[in-house]
Amino acid sequence: MAHRARKISIFSEILSGDAIIKIMFNKSQAFIWNGKEKQLKPVIRIPTQKIDELYGIEEQKKLLIENTKAFIEGKRVNNVLLWGERGTGKTTLIKSLLNYFKDTPLRMIQVLKSDIITISYLYDIIYENPQFRCIIFIDDLSFNENEEEFRDLKLIMDGGLEEFPENSVIYATSNRRTLMPAVSQSDNELFPEDTLQERASLIERFGLRIGFYRFSEEQYLEIVKHYASKNGISLSQNELIKKAHEWALVHGTTGRSAYQFVLSLQIP
């Protein structure tokens, strides 16, 4: 990895910016967008999570895989919002696409909420590399009232006068179904229904909205058993279930909680 980074550094001194980006797209599968510098940083440590190891979200996996597969095949697909309970695998599912679609033209670019306004510059880079299919990934997306990024994202997703690249799509996660608080904090609005319409206008730009819900106790215990087996935990099943129940009373029955519980068992 270090050798590859040095090679790119050397090339950067003699090649144009476009040429450098083409090298990066050929060598790396994922990037982090620096909106301030208008630059891409290759991700060296690609997530290795296998999508088959995500339990309790079979329908959600199916929908996301189908949308992503069609996108890689060159079809126009919907922007995707994964919303719902925290700790249910929304972010992990998106990251696992990198492993699932390894050795394909898929590239993933993570953008922070604070850099949303600069996505138009990122679009220029994506447009110049049509042989790749780029997911713009925005994690843990939500807005408070009057945040400008809310309107910025609407404009970015519409494209405005400048059409967005056909080889790009936005995947976002959020704990909020509507990305914003359910109730307006302003008591002085003359037409509150207009605010509701404005909120809905952003959500409608995500044509595929996938919900994630609280796991049942049975699903939670199945995830615990899987992680315990994978990590070589040598407890009897009865003991494991008893301790898992005790853990859940404090931490809940999410997939994240199950994983953290098994990690705690590795400490003497």
Automatic annotation (TrEMBL):
<feature type="domain" description="AAA+ ATPase">
    <location>
        <begin position="76"/>
        <end position="216"/>
    </location>
</feature>
<dbReference type="InterPro" id="IPR003593">
    <property type="entry name" value="AAA+_ATPase"/>
</dbReference>
<protein>
    <recommendedName>
        <fullName>AAA+ ATPase domain-containing protein</fullName>
    </recommendedName>
</protein>
<dbReference type="InterPro" id="IPR008533">
    <property type="entry name" value="DUF815"/>
</dbReference>
<dbReference type="InterPro" id="IPR027417">
    <property type="entry name" value="P-loop_NTPase"/>
</dbReference>
<dbReference type="Pfam" id="PF05673">
    <property type="entry name" value="DUF815"/>
</dbReference>
